[in-house]
Amino acid sequence: MSIQSLTATEAAQFLQDNPDSILLDVREDDEVALCHISGSLHIPMNLIPLRNNELPDDVPIVVYCHHGIRSMNVARYLEHLGFDNLYNLSGGIDAWSQQIDPNVARY
């Protein structure tokens, strides 16, 4: 299965429709200190190879970063490891703050 990109609006609906899914934040600690999407699991991109065992392989995973580039790379890496049901938040948390939740700070 290929990785599907979701707009912020599509991701919000997807997460609502699939409450068992994981919202994976792959940004750095200092970025998360600025803002995050409520309910997300934070594993920085550079720690994914060490901590991917923390991710269930039987539920959808929506990956996000600042603008969607790092998250797509992480999704491709997870796909290579055998994960499927992967989604990338296109535009990242920046798009989320503009389209879904204006209380999420932009940086």
Automatic annotation (TrEMBL):
<dbReference type="InterPro" id="IPR050229">
    <property type="entry name" value="GlpE_sulfurtransferase"/>
</dbReference>
<dbReference type="GO" id="GO:0016740">
    <property type="term" value="F:transferase activity"/>
</dbReference>
<protein>
    <submittedName>
        <fullName>Rhodanese-related sulfurtransferase</fullName>
    </submittedName>
</protein>
<dbReference type="InterPro" id="IPR036873">
    <property type="entry name" value="Rhodanese-like_dom_sf"/>
</dbReference>
<keyword id="KW-0808">Transferase</keyword>
<dbReference type="Pfam" id="PF00581">
    <property type="entry name" value="Rhodanese"/>
</dbReference>
<dbReference type="InterPro" id="IPR001763">
    <property type="entry name" value="Rhodanese-like_dom"/>
</dbReference>
<feature type="domain" description="Rhodanese">
    <location>
        <begin position="17"/>
        <end position="105"/>
    </location>
</feature>
